[in-house]
Input
Amino acid sequence: FGAFVTVGICVWVLVRPQPYWAAILAGYAAIFSITVAPLMANDYFRLREPRGNPPDRTRINIAAPLSCLSAVLLIRALMDMDTVELTKAIFLGLLAGSMYALLLWVIVRRASFGISALVGAFLGPAALLHTNAATLSAEGYVERGVVSNKYASSKPRRHIVVATMGPNQVELTVSQESFSSYATGQDICTEVRSGALGIRVRFIRVC
Output
């Protein structure tokens, strides 16, 4: 049953996260539940496959659900936010993720540190980006530019408007509904807001 719930949440978050924050919070709630479960019954959980031996069917392997949930949350965060300081956000997220990896490694008996580190590398940046997005300021500063190109990608599914903002070109993620309204050479305005973690995010707005 737990596997079906995990797959359902992963599909919800990745394919159609509506309502958005309900889907995102469901993903983090599932990760929290899986993380704390070994605290109550450690003998029933594992975070690795035994080498050279048949799989231990008596203990639940939590590596797959944690990896799936943390990966789709990171993909969602990268797809939905035009983060100005993405490198900074990823670096800080990896630091936070390393602490989670260490915690997970300690909680789960005979856990694989490699798997713990992988989950932490996904989860840390995702949690940082979503926390920052949830605490964005109501107003920011406006930048003006011109649409130079636009394209849609299917893997992952995104609609991108490329705008020239001064000497730089930036890629802005827009909704499928508004994608057709942008044309090359069109004037465009973006608003940059900062969250509680100091990470700036860019939005398209009416000039």
Observations:
- DSSP finds six helices and eight strands in the chain.
- The mean pLDDT is 83.
- Helices lie at 2-15, 20-40, 63-80, 86-107, 113-134, 176-179.
